[in-house]
């Protein structure tokens, strides 16, 4: 392989990496970065919106330049484990910990045609999500990202997450 061909391949690889770190259009900012949770809500079938992870949810979403991500959402009102030992937690304490958190990691990409984020989930606190792909409609600005989980829950509500870019 000659020097010119190697330079072209290198430039092509750099361009591909740069495109992955950006989103659907040139007008949108890059998706890569660190995001702080600002809302973890649910949209009811009647259009009303309410808190899903308590009054003071907390969380972090980190996306690197290659599209790898790690996401954590926690209810601010989870019960503390009185014994201080997870192995001896009460059923209520364990339920609060499980139902008051949502974590997963894998890769995320942007489907420009459908304007959706495509999460390919490798590991999750909810094991049924592992090995799945989830497509979520999103809105992205320079400092905010929000998206909806695609499938309504049994009660018909749809989870919505909102994030603020950390600088």
Automatic annotation (TrEMBL):
<feature type="domain" description="Lipocalin-like">
    <location>
        <begin position="33"/>
        <end position="148"/>
    </location>
</feature>
<dbReference type="InterPro" id="IPR024311">
    <property type="entry name" value="Lipocalin-like"/>
</dbReference>
<feature type="signal peptide">
    <location>
        <begin position="1"/>
        <end position="26"/>
    </location>
</feature>
<keyword id="KW-0732">Signal</keyword>
<protein>
    <recommendedName>
        <fullName>Lipocalin-like domain-containing protein</fullName>
    </recommendedName>
</protein>
<dbReference type="Pfam" id="PF13924">
    <property type="entry name" value="Lipocalin_5"/>
</dbReference>
């Amino acid at each position: 392989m000659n020097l010119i061909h190697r330079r072209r391949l290198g430039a092509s690889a750099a361009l591909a990496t740069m495109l992955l770190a950006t989103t659907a259009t040139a007008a949108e900012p890059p998706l890569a970065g660190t995001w702080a949770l600002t809302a973890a809500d649910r949209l009811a079938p009647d259009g009303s919106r309410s808190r899903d992870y308590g009054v003071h949810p907390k969380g972090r979403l980190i996306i690197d330049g290659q599209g790898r991500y790690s996401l954590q959402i926690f209810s601010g009102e989870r019960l503390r484990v009185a014994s201080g030992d997870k192995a001896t937690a009460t059923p209520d304490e364990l339920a609060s910990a499980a139902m008051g958190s949502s974590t997963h990691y894998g890769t995320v990409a942007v489907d420009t045609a459908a304007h959706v984020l495509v999460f390919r989930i490798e590991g999750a606190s909810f094991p049924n999500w592992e090995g799945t792909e989830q497509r979520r409609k999103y809105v992205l600005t320079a400092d905010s990202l929000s998206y909806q989980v695609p499938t309504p829950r049994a009660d018909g509500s749809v989870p919505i997450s909102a994030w603020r870019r950390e600088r």
